[in-house]
Amino acid sequence: MSKDENKEQAKYNITTELAMEEARKIINGEIEAKSYESINEILDEIDMEE
Question: Which pTM was predicted?
Answer without folding.
Answer: 0.59
